[in-house]
Known about the structure:
By secondary structure, the chain is mainly α. The protein has three helices and no strands. Helix content is about 60%, strand content about 0%.
Amino acid sequence: MVEHDDPSAPLERSGESVVIETARELLRAHRIPTRWRERVVSVVGDRGFLELAATIGYYSHLAIVMNAYQQLGDESGLTRPRCRYEPSRRAKEEPDE
């Protein structure tokens, strides 16, 4: 569990908490301080750092688009997609344990 999200705090934390705090900092400031980037890269590598940034960017983009769509009223004329969930046949056949 992350105790705080201060990127200037000491970096003696688990890899998971470093990733979580990096995500928070990217969403808050849209940048990662050099010291943090070095720590994240030491945990997940260069490629992992870029993949983390891309994933956070992708999902924040989706959130922005979904929020904008929800702000449009029914008078916009846009048709809202319907969500149709059907459990798989396997899930229906397997008893609960």
